[in-house]
């Protein structure tokens, strides 16, 4: 497979300095940018499914009149996170 490049990105000196300060040990600027682009692609691809699940949940709640309080949801999330 042939490799290619992404377009050059012009940024201010200050922003480039911020990015360089955020690099991990041994991490290159190119690797950082590629990782950021990959994460954004993943996020954008997941967004439509996320929205569809939210809309389906809202539809279901309206049909069943079954709603959950914010605190109840946060408590459930805390329990899930504490198990990890």
From TrEMBL:
<protein>
    <recommendedName>
        <fullName>Prevent-host-death protein</fullName>
    </recommendedName>
</protein>
